[in-house]
């Protein structure tokens, strides 16, 4: 089994168990359960986040353009236009391909691509990239000034339960969750990460959007249960 999974992939688990192959395999199997539990929380968090931000961006774009235009199907007002250009284009192309592949039995066969179709194709990273960047050195670049404007005029309203005047709290939560999502998606080990603390950021982010939804997400999480079943490493 170790060879079938490849020793390079299993190296973190072998190192953690003193090269005990039986325990390394048990740890790897447990880790699969952990990543599944974390992914479940992150998946719901991403949907809640994108819907909340999309609602405010759509409202803002309607005011800025003087009409009800989808910011994903048509060129939105500046600065949203430049901040989202490449990711909007790729999402629209992906949604178009999906629509073209629908067979005649599909419930939406022959229908044109909708705003929601494109929204579903956007990657987690766009939501981080639309928030004011508070990383060291980000400074007052044109893009970051534009993000700050979007925060003040639109995106701050997506997080009504958080006192976050400049978006720093929200930026770091989303940035950390983006990193965690990438690790989980690539099956990278979480052995040396405080998973409980990282998942807590997801709960806090959802709570800043909607407390009832946060209670539902927290109550349905299996992360703590799985963490408590971590097998012995020695």
Quick recap of the structure?
The protein has 234 residues and is mostly helical. Helix content is 65%, strand content 0%. It contains eleven helices and no strands.
Describe the structure.
The chain is mainly alpha-helical and 234 residues long. It has a domain of 132 residues. The chain is built from 11 helices and no strands. Helix 4 crosses helix 5 and helix 9 runs antiparallel to helix 10.
Helices and strands, with pairings:
Blueprint: H1 2-5, H2 7-16, H3 21-65, H4 80-100, H5 115-121, H6 125-129, H7 142-153, H8 168-185, H9 195-209, H10 211-220, H11 223-227
Helix pairs in contact: 2-3, 3-8, 3-9, 4-5, 8-9, 9-10
Order of helices and strands: HHHHHHHHHHH
Strand percentage: under 5%
The radius of gyration over CA amounts to 21 Å
Oligomer: single chain
Number of strands: 0
Ends distance: 20 Å
Overall average pLDDT: 95
Poorly predicted tracts of residues: none
**How is the main sheet built?**
none
Shape: globular
